[in-house]
Amino acid sequence: MNRNASRIFAALFGVLAVTLPFFAGDYPLQVARNIMMYMALAITWDMLLRSGQISFGIAGLFGIGAYAAILGVIRAGMPAWFSILFAAIFSGVVAFVIGFLILRLRAMYFSIVTLALGEIFRIIIHNLHDFTGGPEGVVIQKGVIFGGDANRLYWLVLAGLAVAVAASYWFEKSKIHFALTAIRNNEISAKSSGIDIFRWLLLAFVVTSAIQGLLGGIFVQSYGFATPDTVFSADFTLLPLAMALLGGVYSTTGPIFGAVLLGLVSEWLKLKIPYGHLVVYGIIIIIVILFMPQGLRQLVRRPAHKADGRNA
Amino acid sequence: MKKRMMLALAVLALIAGSAYAQGTIKIGGIWTLADITGKQGSAAAQLAVDEINAAGGVLGKKLELIVVDDEGKADKAAAAVEKLATVDKVDVFVGGMASGAELGKIPAFKKYNKVVMSTGAAGSATVEKALGPSPDSDFYFHLHPWDYNQGASYAEGWDAIQKKYPNIQIKKIFLAYEEGAFGKSSWDATKILFGSDKRYTIDGASFKSALLGGGDYTAVLEAAKSFKPDLFLWAGYDADALPLLEQSKAMKFSPGIYLGAPPGWPIDFGASKLSPNVMLYGMWSTAMNNNNPSSAKFFKNYVAKYKEEPATYFAPLAYSAVFILADGIKAAGTTETAALVKALEATKYASPLGETITFTPSTIIKHQGITRQKILQWQNGDQQVIWPFEAATAVPVYPFPAWK
Amino acid sequence: MVVKRRTAIIAAVVALILWKPTVLIYGLQAAGLYAAVAIPMGLVLGIVHIVNLAHGEFMMVAAYAAYFGCKALGMDPLLAIIPTAIVTAIFGWVMFQLTIRRALKAPELNQLILTFGLAIAFTQAINLIFTSQTYKMPLDYVSASMDIGDITFGVWSFVFVAVAIIFAYGLKFFLTKTMTGKAAVAVGQNPRGAAIVGIDVYRTYGLVFALALVLVGAMGALFLTKSAIFPSVGSPFTMKSFCLIAMAGIGNIPGILGASVLLGVAENFLRAFRPTRDWAEIVFFVLIIVVILARSLKGKKS
């Protein structure tokens, strides 16, 4: 696909996404909301991956943002939209602080530590039951944002997705791209070219964590409740990972394809095979990753397209 | 000419199609199908639908059950409600088990304002709060007891048991509770309902259930042992049942009453040598087939259709839910919400669970169904009902035998 | 440094024995189970370099096979250890050849997602066939107990300690003293170099994977004695094992023993006191982070 074609395609896709509520019923909108939430998380995971760091902590930052938002509303009387922004800032700040500790780690050690941190956040929220409501969770008394209006809820998640997509494009089109790719390919030569590795990793980590927190805030406002098991669910870490990989990593479009594939397949399979659809789901993941190791993107892009660095 | 004929045929087909569609009353069922409670709950609901249709249906139409899996997740549960309401255009909803998924459904339920016959969600701190007071929550008929209903019922039960069987005396109660929402709400309910009664001294400790990767009860059993309770109660899941007993035996911990409160028990628990005289909290058991005709009928039909026994009370509960809905629709003459709510408020259904179900207000909502649980005991491989005495199938064996 | 650490450990052990001996007893037992499950995953991670997210699920499948095999043949699970180990190894080797092997040339993340897909497929297939209900084989010897002073404790779980030690030192022997083992280590450290020298890399990978699954299969049968089994019983073990391996250092199999003991004892220590009981799980993750960070800081210094 050449540049202009893909720009037109993206524009069409964007128009479709924004106008969907006008011609789709509430059920497709709900499914779309679910998919977009994971899609946005998958994009943020990919953004950090471009630096070579594999995070297993999405659920931790998503959950922390979610609780920041809901406790902000319940304990501090914040308006709903403000609590969502607060969630983003809170996760961003937390990421900034822990970044100093953990961004020195590499490979699986970094991944395990992000996983461990996510669990630590969950357990802290779980145990401080007087403040956070404990394992039973908390409910926003006045209910869901926008009174549950399906269109507005859809646009809210779309806004969150737009933030993720915009951030990802920013990462792709600015000098951040060169810095992260250089770090990913070879840290030693990156350093000798004058790149301050820590600074770029911290930037990527804070931005992606803030977006994950933002999405957590959107989630709790969309459903009006939070429980530790719901918002810190491993699904929020593993599914975005699978989506990004199945769609094609180191890109914005890859996670989008992957999320659409896995999200639609999951819902469709459930309706066709009420008992046992998850077995097929697992098998589909296996088959796609075996036969399309570079993700669905390789169907759209020509393999000669090496302009943005090595794909593997 | 041909075109006009085609058009006419198409219109006829449409009318016929919609007339056919109008010929059924649609019940939208949402369960976690991957879990045994959802698998059997939806099966039991389908059994009820089949029985009602065989007896002539409701208001001259057949019932149709459409089931969508909520996968135990809030967002999928919300999507299930949307699909049933907008695509399948169901008239009423049924189902539910976990509180978390229920919370996901509630905003969508409120949007469509169709009658919901809920078979799950005991978590009052969140679900009842999210539902809110009457009249906004009047469409929601909560069949399953709330956690505080369960606690109050057990307080009443033990009171009655101690009065009737004076050799059973309880002063100290220890609750081992799993650290999740289920265990924690059991602990809160126990502390409030038993702890406020000056007769009892309560203590407890949390453990990680084997269902979630725990399975090490040594710390909690050590704490229980040093407390020397008359009644030891554990609130966890089926995976904890036998390991807890095995570790209790290894630590030579045998309280006067060993009581388990999981939503279900492991397969063949009754055949295990450790099961005799273990007490349990529950809502239904196969022993009830002996003295409850409604239970016997349900059990016989379920086994005949599915060639397996219902494993938990969620099966007869779902079965009851469908019958209650059907009776309500018959009485109201419509599925329109306001009329149906009024008709359901007059419900008096003799359920397989051993009690006549009516709806009364609970702390926040107006339509609460079952409020009483049962105290049972494993005897000879079966769960025998000890209390309420009207439904009792056996006399309690006390005390729990010391380990040899 | 080493002497100081050793005296510190001995002092801590003595203190525990005098003050809260149950912490040491139960901590060791828990450590045994964690280590025995983690070691095979560490073997695969260290040599084949894949994070097997289906690790716990293989053990779960093995446990189910052992359960139904024992029920059908009226056997005790202990007798089923060797048959289960062999069956699991064959099953795993077949899975490896069908799926994982094809992904080895792809980036490591692909292998991760592949095993994730396998984990889902296994869990849900077992769920479909056997439902989510729990199965437990009631056995008398699991409640074997011992009295020391005024404490009574179960002793069966010490079997996991023995198994973990056998696994760790058995593997160490295999990897350092046998030809196949040394070849495997070479492949793990430098696959290209090993291939040049003439070692069949993929055959070695398959062998190592099968060996790991022998251990996993044995654990599946043994696990059955103490725990109830259900479709998702394996997944918490995958995460715990992964954490332990990272704590010990990837490739350091005997280190897993030490890491497990540290975590098992710390967890039980916190569980022994009412105010800290709820925080026992968090110590697991805090210690992992502390150890990994400390090692990274030490590495930077040297």
Overview features:
heterotrimer; A: 312 residues; mainly alpha; ABC transporter involved in vitamin B12 uptake, BtuC; two-stranded antiparallel sheet; 15 helices; 2 strands; 76% helix; disordered C terminus; B: 404 residues; alpha/beta; Rossmann fold; five-stranded parallel beta sheet; 12 helices; 43% helix; elongated
Protein model, in words:
- The complex is a heterotrimer of chains A (312), B (404) and C (302).
- Chain A is an all-alpha fold and 312 residues long.
- Chain A is built from 15 helices and two strands.
- Chain A has a two-stranded antiparallel sheet with strand order 1-2.
- In chain A, helix 3 packs across helix 4 and helix 7 packs across helix 8.
- The radius of gyration of chain A is 19 Å and the shape is globular.
- The relative contact order of chain A is 0.17.
- The C terminus of chain A is likely disordered.
- Chain B is α/β, with parallel strands linked by helices and 404 residues long.
- A two-stranded antiparallel sheet of chain C has the order 1-2.
- The longest helix of chain C has 27 residues.
- Chain C has one domain.
- Chain C is built from twelve helices and two strands.
- With 302 residues, chain C is mainly α.
- Chains in contact: A-B, A-C, B-C.
- Chains B and C meet through helix 8 and helix 9 of B and helix 2, strand 2 and helix 10 of C.
